[in-house]
Design brief:
By secondary structure, the protein is mostly helical. The chain is 33% helix and 5% strand. Strand 5 and strand 6 form a beta hairpin. Helix 9 crosses helix 13 and helix 12 packs across helix 13. It is globular.
Length: 412
């Protein structure tokens, strides 16, 4: 008679740490891309192929508060394109002042995410649109009402006809979702200083930034943050080495992450790894917005994901490297007015002059470097105008009841 022996399960934290480190070793061997260094991080493509008519329609829908039940909240309310593609709050505030459950991620480069939302419950950008639009705490709308509002608008029937000339029912739930998704795919931030370095410009980074990238790989950060989006392509448990939630306490349903989608015990506290591309502009950090600065986020990663100590100079170098990942953003005046706060920052960056026509660097050094549009004419929007994102904005901290209160400097 044969006896079946139950194979003992490996120690969960140890198993996860070994899995992360082994993945980091594999990724650190790099990849081969023509014209770029063989590294685990890929450059954001200089341009992306999109349908311009759908992008124009999606841009307008993205900024239209009529998609919400009471006409007060738009997609751009929580994803401000002049401020890094998020709203700078611990959690977003939706319809009738209702606080959200998790920190709003940036919408920039979201087309490179393998799933959408922190818990990955949406497989595509189109599917993602349903979430906030129908959420009771975000926009609390229903599709028949949205379609009716758009039909009553003097411009939307024409815009939808131009974008969907072969559709009998031009203004529909599916077309609205597709247009917004197409606009989101256009929101790329190419040609960061790090991408320039990847493509062979050895002077694009200073020594601290280069050392920061070397440390980013050496410590194993790259095991979860790689690819063109420097993240956004896998799920990972938050607290893989040390238990973040036991230390923080007050665990909510939102803290369960991917488990809420799959019901799998192994997915408890697992989240989509966030992209670091726009991290220099999107404080506060982590799914609960508990890290006010990039340095706070790096400290948390060392404590809870890596389970190791590092000298301050190493962590500061890693922060300096992360700040080189933000690229260029094409501004279209159709997206709405520039906020007073952003205009003040813009004036300071450009020496009290209006933003010139051409591609602007999204810089964390307080300066914008203009280059002629001919440098990469294919990336300029139809009207040829662009603007840089602000680099130092106020964020808000969370009170004991979870609401955003009191502006504090983001420290980045």
């Amino acid at each position: 008679m044969s006896i079946k022996r139950k194979t003992p399960k490996p120690d969960r934290p140890l198993y996860r740490s070994l899995r992360v480190l082994s993945l980091g070793l594999v990724l650190s061997l790099g990849f081969t891309e023509p014209g770029a260094r063989a590294e685990p991080i890929k450059p954001v493509p200089i341009m992306v192929e999109v349908n311009e008519a759908k992008v124009a329609l999606g841009r307008r829908l993205f900024h239209d508060p009529r998609l919400s039940k009471n006409n007060t909240v738009s997609c751009a309310t929580c994803h401000d394109l002049s401020a890094g593609g998020d709203d700078g709050q611990v959690v977003s505030i939706g319809i009738e002042g209702r606080p959200g459950l998790v920190n709003a991620p940036t919408v920039f480069n979201s087309g490179y995410n393998f799933k959408q939302f922190w818990d990955g419950r949406a497989h595509t950008l189109e599917e993602q649109v349903d979430g906030p639009l129908q959420s009771r705490i975000e926009m609390e709308s229903i599709w028949p009402d949205v379609v009716t509002k758009l039909f009553q608008d003097e411009d939307y029937p024409r815009l939808f006809q131009e974008a969907y000339p072969n559709d009998a029912q031009i203004i529909s739930r599916e077309n609205i979702k597709e247009a917004i998704a197409e606009f989101q795919r256009s929101l790329i931030t190419p040609n960061s200083r790090f991408d320039q370095w990847l493509r062979g410009n050895v002077g694009a980074l200073n020594e601290q930034e280069k050392e920061g990238y070397a440390l980013f790989k050496r410590y194993g950060c790259v095991s979860c943050h790689q690819g063109a989006n420097v993240g956004g392509n896998m799920f990972q448990v938050f607290g893989v080495i040390n238990d973040y939630f036991r230390k923080r306490g007050n665990i909510t349903d939102a803290d369960l992450g991917r488990f809420n989608v799959t019901g799998n015990e192994a997915d408890k506290h697992a989240f989509k790894v966030p992209s670091l591309r726009m991290a220099a502009h999107t404080a506060p950090y982590l799914h609960d917005g508990s890290a006010e600065t990039l340095r706070d986020a790096v400290d948390a990663m060392f404590e809870f994901q890596l389970g190791r100590e590092a000298p301050d100079e190493d962590k500061e170098a890693i922060v300096a490297f992360i700040k080189t990942l933000a690229g260029e953003y094409q501004f279209d005046p159709g997206q709405g007015p520039i906020s007073a706060e952003f205009q003040e920052s813009l004036n300071g960056n450009l020496g009290q002059r209006a933003a010139p026509t051409g591609i602007q660097d999204i810089s964390t050094t307080g300066t914008s470097q203009e280059r002629p549009p001919a440098d990469r004419a294919e990336t300029v929007s139809q009207n040829g105008s662009t603007r840089p994102l602000r680099t130092g904005r106020s964020v808000r901290t969370r009170s004991k009841v979870g609401r955003a209160t009191g502006p504090v400097r983001s420290g980045r």
